[in-house]
Amino acid sequence: MSARRDFVKMHGLGNDFVVVDARQEPFAPSPARVRALADRREGIGFDQLIVIEPADDTGDVFMRIYNADGGEVSACGNATRCVAARLFAHGASSPLLIETRAGVLTAWPSGDGRISVDMGPARTDWDAIPLAEPADTLHLDLGVPGVPEVVAVNVGNPHAVAFVPDAEAVALDTLGPRVEHHAMFPERANASFATVLDGETIRLRVWERGAGITRACGTAACAVCVAAVRRGLTGRQVTVHLDGGPLELAWRERDGHVIKTGPAAVSFTGQVDESAIAA
Ligand SMILES: N[C@@H](CCC[C@H](N)C(=O)O)C(=O)O
């Protein structure tokens, strides 16, 4: 008998997700099944598969995150807004506590149709993310002259941020994978190329670990905000312009938490016959 699962296809600024609500019936796809579902020609297609599960602890729900390459990861900023928007639309009360492998995140409607999320604390010390060997500064040998030092930031997942003179000119499809798979990052890394436009505006292009070029990455926007403040390049509140549009970020002084505000949209709903998708 074939198993049919309801899903909703959602996106945050074009960073797209298939969201499966598994609170009543478990859904635990193998990495091969995730890759098959992620295939944009033969599957449904997404950057991340998101599974909503019953809360383990103090939260309202648990959010499990799989990259398109089948790997399970700890954080996804845009999907957190999408899950919150979906649950608010179905009557959940605010604030909503979303458990992830990286901690419990709090989400609320921002009052203008968008969703705000407290993404928790960000770390930018030299050991913020797993490195192959200790390093105070990260000058990656990418085989391309002119790529500056990279800043490591942890927002529940690992980010490598490079501030470049012109993010538009970066060859994301070649530099992104070199950063993601660089020997310094044993757990790989999400790669951000950012240009500071003024003290409150940043242009950002992202190569995501396990998904490649995406139109937006919420945790990368948080990482870039924190890295820019640490470098004295911007104030603590910035608008980050991704390929899919803007996100508002604030790095809160009192507790080091990053607050992110942006849209969340439903594209369509559907049902997948799991046996029809080879794994
Ligand atoms: N799209 C996400 C990040 C998804 C996980 C990331 N690719 C990783 O491997 O850590 C976002 O909006 O933050």
UniProtKB/TrEMBL annotation:
Q: Which GO terms describe its cellular component?
A: cytosol
Q: Which GO terms describe its biological process?
A: lysine biosynthetic process via diaminopimelate
Q: Which SUPFAM superfamilies match?
A: Diaminopimelate epimerase-like (SSF54506)
> Membrane-spanning regions, if any?
none
| Predominant cellular place of this UniProt entry's protein | cytoplasm
Keywords of the record: Amino-acid biosynthesis, Cytoplasm, Isomerase, Lysine biosynthesis
| Entry keyword annotation includes Nucleus | no
Please list the residues that make up the active site: 76, 76 (proton donor), 217 (proton acceptor)
A Pfam match: DAP_epimerase
Q: What sections of the sequence does the record tag as coiled-coil?
A: none
Q: Where does substrate bind?
A: 15, 48, 67, 77-78, 157, 190, 208-209, 218-219
Note the site residues: Could be important to modulate the pK values of the two catalytic cysteine residues. 159, 208
Q: Where is this protein localized, as stated in its record?
A: Cytoplasm
What GO MF annotations does this protein's record show? Answer: diaminopimelate epimerase activity
Reactions catalysed according to its record: (2S,6S)-2,6-diaminopimelate = meso-2,6-diaminopimelate
InterPro entries, sorted: DAP_epimerase_AS, DAP_epimerase_DapF
Q: In which pathway does it act?
A: Amino-acid biosynthesis; L-lysine biosynthesis via DAP pathway; DL-2,6-diaminopimelate from LL-2,6-diaminopimelate: step 1/1
Q: Which family, according to the similarity comment?
A: Belongs to the diaminopimelate epimerase family.
Reported function: Catalyzes the stereoinversion of LL-2,6-diaminopimelate (L,L-DAP) to meso-diaminopimelate (meso-DAP), a precursor of L-lysine and an essential component of the bacterial peptidoglycan.
Q: What's the subunit arrangement here?
A: Homodimer.
* Protein name per the record: Diaminopimelate epimerase
**Species this chain originates from:** Limimonas halophila
Q: What is the lineage of its organism?
A: Bacteria, Pseudomonadati, Pseudomonadota, Alphaproteobacteria, Rhodospirillales
**By which gene is this protein encoded?**
dapF
